[in-house]
Specification:
The chain is α+β, with helices and mostly antiparallel strands. Helix content is 53%, strand content 22%. The protein contains 3 helices and 6 strands. The chain has a 6-stranded antiparallel β-sheet, covered by helices on one side. 12% of the residues are buried.
Length: 214
């Protein structure tokens, strides 16, 4: 009888322990679930704030860029005007250059210094042809002289006729120590030219005018 009673108590105690373990397991499971939910919500909130902050910063940067562009456009209303001014200046420079080129064209007039002149050609852009001579210059009308060769060079420069294809009919003084004139024609040609040249110290002979003879 006593053994039965003890066995009954032992069974009751074992049942209570099993029930208590089950209850503890359920409670622990619920606590773990709650903790997981807390962690999940916290993570979502954290990353949501980060993403929201990044989006807001990007939006703010874009807005600031747009505002800066508008401010720059507004603060520099003369940009188009300056571009137009530059374009106008470039056009004016081009016009001036074209005008200079037009001005540099040879000036041709009918007649000349004598009745046998058909027309006279003058060009303000003609320059001295250079010289290898030094010291005080004295005109030398000798075909073998350097001065003579430089005179021929100036005449060739003014007429466009190569010195090797040129017939020299006359080359001599033209009324002064630094002034000369030559009458020439192209070999085989029928047109004669009288060319007046002047000496420029240190720079050589310079064409003054070309007269086409009748």
């Amino acid at each position: 009888m006593k053994d039965d009673f003890e066995n009954q108590n032992e069974g009751l105690r074992s049942g209570k322990l099993a029930k208590r373990r089950k209850t503890n397991l359920v409670l622990n499971s619920l606590i773990a679930i709650v903790l997981l939910l807390i962690i999940f919500v916290s993570v979502n909130i954290f990353f949501g704030d980060v993403e929201s902050k990044g989006t807001n910063e990007d939006t703010a940067a874009e807005s600031k860029t747009e505002e800066s562009a508008k401010e720059n456009a507004g603060s520099n209303p003369s940009g188009d005007t300056e571009a137009k001014e530059d374009s106008t200046e470039a056009e004016e420079e081009t016009d001036a250059e074209n005008k200079e080129e037009e001005d540099s064209e040879p000036v041709v007039t009918e007649g000349g210094s004598s009745p046998d002149v058909k027309k006279t050609i003058e060009n303000p852009d003609w320059e001295p042809v250079g010289t290898s001579q030094s010291g005080e210059h004295v005109a030398v009308y000798d075909q073998n002289a350097v001065d003579w060769q430089e005179m021929i060079k100036a005449i060739s420069y003014a007429t466009g006729i190569d010195s090797n294809n040129m017939t020299v009919w006359f080359l001599g003084n033209n009324g002064g120590p630094n002034s000369a004139a030559g009458t020439i024609s192209e070999k085989g040609g029928s047109v004669k030219y009288r060319v007046a040249i002047e000496w420029v110290d240190g720079k050589g002979w310079k064409p003054v005018k070309v007269e086409e003879l009748k």
